[in-house]
Amino acid sequence: MKKDFALTTRLHDKAIPASSLQHFAKECMLGKDFTSALAYIDEAIKREPTESSYHIGRANILYHLQDFHEALNALNNASELPHNPAAIALNRGAIYNAMGEPEKALPYYDEALKHAPELANAHYNKGNALRKLDKFEEAIDSFKRAHTLQPREPVFLNNLALTYQDSNQLEQAINTYQKALALNPNYHDANFNCGLCHLLRGNFIKGFALYEWRLNNPNNNLPKRRFTVPLWQGEPLQGKHLYCYAEQGFGDAIQFIRYVSLLNAMGAKVSIECRPPLVRLFQQISGIVAIHSSVNNSPEADFVCSLLSLPYLCQTTVESLPAHTPYLAVTNADKQHWQSHLGQADKRIGFCFAGSPTHKNDRHRSIALAYWQNYFESCQQQAISLVCLQKDIKHSAALERLNMICLDTALNDFYDTACVIACCDEIVTVDTSVAHLAGAQGKKVTVLLPFAPDWRWMLARNDSPWYPSMRLLRQPALNDWDSVFNQLISEQTC
Asked: 211 with 199: CB under 8 angstroms?
């Protein structure tokens, strides 16, 4: 209320110069109050419409409000006035990059650098655009140049390290993260990202410790939970009630629900909080006393813990992880129900070609249907029945023309999917929740992985310590799905 009064008073006080209104807008931006910032800068423009810096500031505020088209319009207005060409080009590039059009952003970064070759942010933003385009060597050069110009900026080092990580240069990545952390030891992103590198290398003790930095990171999209119950920090659990919540994706929950048996062995009663599509699946686990499908920050328990913190708190190593499968199962009656729905087949393979499109690395892990065509035809020639385990299929008509069974809307939750998996002889899938579900059921499963995989699959191995029945087929080079499918088809026809 006090803030609103100050805003209204200032906006109507004609004695306040436009430059002061711009200052108030910048203060609001620091506090992430972009709506108030926009009100201040709009009033500044009304009072001094020919000052280009106000229009550039307006574009920056609209960028943070994700009103990208209006932000571009603001820059167009600025460009018609005496202006800083490097600033306008830099902002245009940032907007196109945020719109998911890095190829349009690059010429503007080059234009900014033509006017201001020593502009570190232009080199940095150019590196980000190049990274999105998988031009890693060029991105590395841009980040290095930005770092040379501003050697005390840890963000430049973090994104340089990310690019090394994208190209599986893990030693260089870790060394670069450490340089960023020497500048700012409490840098959440660098600590977390460095942890992912250690996990990829199989150093679980170090990796899972750094993975904990995700929990209080203001830059990620995870809900910030504030519990009234103490967080479990490794205290003895004999006779205690532990409330575990699923924190990230469905696959993560399926992977780490395995720790229930370990917690039971430590003497704990375990309750689980998860999203509704997982409830029926997790109800099959004998060691869970209660399952909650809604968020509860005040559970009746002694301790609370994220499922994804359990590997750290249990001091998990590659050798000690709880790898016994199956730890998820379906009833015989439900399996028979789905068996009758699917019909008879000498051999049945379930497949999944795409993960969630909102996943930050989906463009690398999901595989266009065109790559699958020869594999599907090879299966048909061998009279193998194919079952699509994909939800929300956009190409169902094309798949049905190949005589596939497309279940889509018939799969109401992960328990239904688990029943279908139980009816299959094997599963072939990209890195998504189906891979975890098949592995957790002890089903023979082949996972097709991008060149730079998620941390849990590590590098340079064709098996997974998490799932004994799983094998991994990896891209030998960036975006090389052809080699993966050539191997898959060759093995299928042997």
From this structure: yes
